[in-house]
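Tokens help. Consider this.
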Amino acid sequence: MFHKILIANRGEIACRIIRTARRMGISTVAVYSDADKDALHVEMADEAVHIGPPPAAQSYLDIARIVAACKQSGADAVHPGYGFLSEREAFAAALAASGTVFIGPNPGAIAAMGDKLQSKRFARAAGVSTIPGHPEAIEDAEQAVAIAEGIGFPVMIKASAGGGGKGMRIARSRAEVAEGFVRARSEAKASFGDDRILIEKFLADPRHIEIQVLGDKHGNLVHLGERECSIQRRNQKVVEEAPSPLLDAATRSAMGEQAVALAKAVNYDSAGTVEFVAGQDRSFFFLEMNTRLQVEHPVTELVTGIDLVEAMIRVAAGEPLALRQDDVQLRGWAIESRLYAEDPTRGFLPSSGRLVRYRQPLEGTADDVTIRVDAGVVEGGEIPIHYDPMIAKLIVHAPDRETAIVAQAQALDRYVIDGIAHNIPFLATLMQHERWRAGRLSTGFIAEEFPGGFIQATPEGDSAFMLAAVAAAVDHVMNLRKRRISGQMRVRQAVEFERDRVVLLGKSRFEVTVGETDAAFVVEFSGDEPKLLELASDWAPGERLWTGIVGAAAIAVQVRPILNGFELAHAGVSVAARVYTRREAELAALMPEKTAGGSKKVLTCPMPGLVKTIVVKKGQEVKAGEALAVVEAMKMENVLVAERDVRIRKILAKVGDTLPVDAVIMEFT
């Protein structure tokens, strides 16, 4: 067995590998760029080696620097995690040449499956069903348009060496193919150092289902069941689960057999994933094989009980698999939510900055429900613009899918992140979505269910009453605290304070009276819908999470103080709750509302990012919908277009500038 492993990665996956290595008694070495010098994975590892400046091409993608770090640290093996160099044949070969073991498949398997064009040839030869498409790399946009028309729209444009949604575009017309080809090629070059592009048929209403395989160096291969990964945005997964709500036992067996057949065809000898696109009728076609650990591997670990990182380490050390196919049993249901530094209300644009507050839900197992968090950040840490925007993964396991969804929703309510935009409100909303709960999924789910973008809901019905009661109870606790401050009450006798309050919950108004019993607060609603709610909680002023019992239900509500009240968030719902005395409410009603005015005469940067291209020139007239600039953030290129017909008055940014959110790029007349 190895005595020291270097992790050629960063963030949550580096931390994840360190945890397993530590449990196995193996020392670990972290590598880090200038941007990650204070990162969690650097702190967790037994030692760390600096490998260069923030851009990945000059640090985490630099093979020579990683090999040098191995020699410097004396590591006898390297785990690449996912992304970066994890699927580079040249990296595995360079490690082998230096006498360092690569914890992953052999270079031949990486080469065979890392190229999407070649992988399809292997798949067809192994009897795996494949998607119709062009079998060779495409030279230019003109050829791409011609091929797309021959296949028939819509088509998928994708990087041959790609993964993780980078270098991928769906095109439904000639114009979209031409632009998508250019963007995909540029992203592929930046992310993978390989700009070859292929085109294949895009299947309507598809599902993304993948099979986990595991092989050793002695010819043994098994599959560990499937994962459903259909909830995606920008071709990148957001929520995954195991097993899939679509598959039956026969389909699972057929997909598993094809995945194993493909893996055997390339002498696969590590953990890997064979991805399929599936129809709602359970038909399926080979998509690609990822010759590495997947981001979503924890859901497979929880339903099988197999630590995939440990298995990879043992296989790389030459040990045979300790299980056969009949030993693999799927138990219960697991769901993973990816927490991204992005703003779902602004088209899921990336965010960056300091984590002013970061509090995870409690991990562990209780009542047959397991909560697990794979994170790579700490409170006070920075989310840089140079890398993938994923902050952490929240994974739950329960006896069945319905219980797992409820557990995931409750855990999301308890996940507190301040300082940057994040997608927890979207994930929490998704957990309440009727179609998601019914398992009627497709890769178009987000676009179909949120066609106008994500808008956070406001509370209605019982949810509104519950949040109004929490607001009233929180306000009451704060008032009690104020009254106990030394010197505030100068009279000896007890003073009776007004307990009647008006809670303005968004545009809804609730008249309440707050009382107390020995164990709870009692909030009585008057008016057209009289109601009484009891709330029990040990919440104290200053805490960001209110947890307690409302009626008979255990509830968690996030509480952020605002003027005259609180911003409350629960189950995907967010609302400003203003709490007044009756007289204060009368006066507040007389205050005029501020409204935004004026037309937008500037183009601002929608997220922190790097200016890749300025498309226009000063004085140029631009029509609505035409491109103005391209900004890259967290490995994704974003085309900024004109919202109306404009003339360019002044260009304030230049190519290569790194801009903060809302920085002005150009002005219009």
Notes: The mean pLDDT is 92.
